[in-house]
Every structure is written in structure tokens, then in C-alpha cells.
Amino acid sequence: MLQILAGNPLLLLFIVAALGYPLGRIRVAGFNLGVAAVLFVGLGMGAIDPSLRLPDLVYQLGLVIFVYTVGLASGPGFFASFGRRGLRDNLLVLSALLFAAGLTTVLALGLDIPGPFAAGLFAGGLTNTPALAGLVETLQQSGRAALDNQPVVAYSIAYPVGVVGVILAIFIAQRLWRVDYRKEARALRDLGASGERLDAATVRITRPDMAERSVQAWLERERWHVLFARFRRGDALDLVHGDTVLRPGDDVTLVGAAEDLEAVVRALGEPSPEHLEFDRARLDVRRIFVSRPEVAGRALRDLGLLERFGALVTRVRRGDSDLLPSGGTRLELGDRVRVVTRRDRMDAVGRFFGDSYRTLSEIDVLPFGLGIALGLALGLVPWPLPGGLTFRLGFAGGPLVVALTLSALRRTGPIVWQPPYSANLTLRQLGLVLFLAGIGTRSGHAFATTLAAGGGLRLFLAGALVTCASALATLVIGSRLLRIPMSLLIGMLSGQQTQPAVLGFANEQTGNDLPNVGYATVFPLATIVKILLAQVLLLALPH
User: What is the pTM of this model?
Assistant: First the structure.
């Protein structure tokens, strides 16, 4: 069997992936390894027999696909975060990462840990796969390929505590500080990730001064976080425009979170026994897929739906979340929009958005291939460092930087850089599996040798100290000194670790998507900084 696997790398690849996935879902004390279990299965295969090694092209291809799709998903949030709050958050994470790198240096010098092991320990303790990939590539390009197993071994030993240690830090902190996540969610509702379900309510207007201003003017003055959808005046049912002036006696359908709806209904009048959303005699409702590239990346206000079709988008469903739309909401391929319009115009609206699930299942190879090619080219550019050294972004950094930029642009003329949401997730998962399986099989023998020689405990303890010290520093400074809400802070810590497993734990604790906001704000910077710092450690510490 070993000979068969050694001679058939594709068979070996899919066996490693097939074994790793179910193992990653096994929960112990509420924690599982997730897709990272593929790495440990690969290490096990390589430890059994050094000939069970996948070709280098497997992990290189996986790395490129993974970091590029991560960048595409994170770009808009990354650049939007550079306001006052985003700058503060990113500076906090940057300081924590510099602290972790400094602590790694002290431990490496004090415990006589060679540079490749220390750099891998840094990447594993902070659970950053692209940083590990950059280390492997740097060693190969610098003619030290014989050492490229060392960072992988240290990474593999430090990685588990890099996940568990941060989860424990969050668990302890939220209980010591008695965090009220529901109260934070209400205060941070403007971020649009409070996890509250969108509902509809019909109000009968009794407010006497309602006719003094348009709906848009009332929304801006009162800062109501709801959407005015339909209204009935007498027997006439119509859509609400921004310049619509409502009058006492009108029935109006509102869309929003339950608490917001209750407050606006009280401000406008009283609950109406009518349910306008159920009246389909004149206005129909349909969920429509956004699959037409010409629509993707454009703000709703620029689409002219009311002028063209007399249509209104009342909800945008992205992934598993409903978003309350506004004029500035930019649609993405794969979004499902809930549209209200006349029955005879619904088909035209469907054609305008595309409404093709099959199209969403296909990937436009031109922007995807062109973007990756630009990223690989950028990764080859040498950047000078002090001391006569040079640095390259490589397979990990180049595609990531290009993807962040292209996803923020969203489109260039007819080219839409963002793939559909579901396609991005699928490609990202595939790329990560390829990378973990490839890097695991090629490093398994060295991993087993290091553990057998007794050097593993030292690396494990050093990695645990780096992880726990940096995580606690972020939580204490962020919450106690900077007064960042814990709902956002634990998402930022997940982004600092670039660790989806920690983010999943954070979402479970809060019961909403606010940690995702913090995660997206700092994730790109954390990824790039860890790639750079890992390579600085590799170059600066003695081998």
C-alpha cells in the first residue's frame, strides 16, 4: 500500500484530504482543528514513510489560490477600515505582533532555538499559514532548501496551542469582565452585523407633522435604521420613494430589526391591522440572484431601479446574513436581493439582475487568472532591506496584496474582479487543503525526528508563551485601556491570529456577526505583517 501511495501522488493527496476533514470535525471540549487537521494527517503520512511526499507544485498551487481568495474577500473591509477606528484597531494589532516577534527573538536567543525553527514557531504560535509558506519559499530561493522542513516542524508543534490558547484567553476574559454581548450589539447596530433578524411591520401614520418632510428627510433627521417599503393611501398601494411625503392615515410597511421597528412604529403612529406585505394583487415580491456582471460592484442608487422598473430592493442576502439595503449598498455576485415591484415587471427585473444560479456556479477565468498572474509577478520583485538583504513577497504576499487592491476596485471596465461569494469560499477551501496536504507530507519525516529527539517540548512551551502573552496583551489593552467593545475585540484577536476557528468561537459567544467586523478590519494587515516578521526572524536569527 505504501508503494502504491508513493507512486500515485494524486491518490495520496485525496486520501490525506479525505482523512483530514472528518478528523478536523471531531470536537474535544468544544474545540476542533477544522481543516488544519489535513496538515496533521499529511505529517503522519510523511512520518510513516519519507517517500509519501506530494510534489511541490501541489502546495504552491494551493497557497496561491488560498491567499488570493482571502484577499478578494477582505479587500473592501480592509481599505474601509482606515478611518479613525480602523487605524486604532490596526495599530493595536500591529503592536501585539511586534511584541510577539520580540518575545520570539528573546526565547530563540535564550533557549538556543535556530532561526528557521524560531520563525516557524512564530508562524505556528500565531497560526498563520501564509507566513509559513513564505518561510519555506524563502529558504528554497536562497539555496537553503535543506532547512525548509524546520519551520514546518516548529509551526506544527506550536499551532494547536495557537488556537486553544487564544480561545481560553477569550473564555477567561469575558467571564472576568462579565461582558454583556447583547447590550454591545444594540450599541453597535450601525455596523450592520448585530445578528438581528430582519422583520416587517405595518404602521398607521398618526403623527400630525409627518407631511412636513419627505421620507428621506425624516430618515436623516431621526436616524431611523429601517427601510420604508410600501404604503397605502385609500385604495392605492405604491412603493415608497425617498421623496415620498406620507400623511396621517397612511399605512406603511417598514423593514428592519425588531427593536428598530418597534421604536419607529411608536414614533410614527400605531401598529396597523393591515399587512401590506401579503397583498400581492398589484405588487409582487421575489428573491432574485445577482448573477449579471454588469450589476456587480455597483451601488443600488446607481442602478436606477425605481426609474427603470418601479422596483425596490428591501433586503440583500449575502451568504447566510440579511442586510438592510441603502443607496450606498454595493451588490456582489451571488447576492440574493428581495425585490418588490409590479407583477408584470418582475421578469424584466430578474433579467436585469441575471437571476441565474448556473452562472454563479461558473468562474470567469479571465479576471481570476489575470489577478493571480499579477500577484505572482509582484511576488517576484526584490525589495531591499538593511544590511544588503532583499525581500520578496513571494507566492504568499504578492497575490494577497494584488487581491486586496483588485477587490477594493471591484471592477475595471467590463472586468469584475470579485468571483461569486460561494465560488470564493469553495476555491479558498480547496487551496487551503492543497497547501496543507502538500506541506504536511513533505515535512512529516522531519517532524517525527524532531519529536523523537526531544526538542519538541521546548518548541511547544515557547510557542504557548508567544500565543498566550500576545493574546492577553491585546485583550487587556484593547478592552481596559482603549475601551473597544469585546464583540469587536475578540473578532480583532481572531484576525490577529488569522484563525477562522477562533472567529467561529467568538461568533458563538456573542450570538451575532460583530466579531466578523473586527476580523475583517485587521485580518489583511495581520497577514501581511506576519509574513514580513516571520521572514525578518528567519534572516536575523542565527541558523
Answer: 0.66
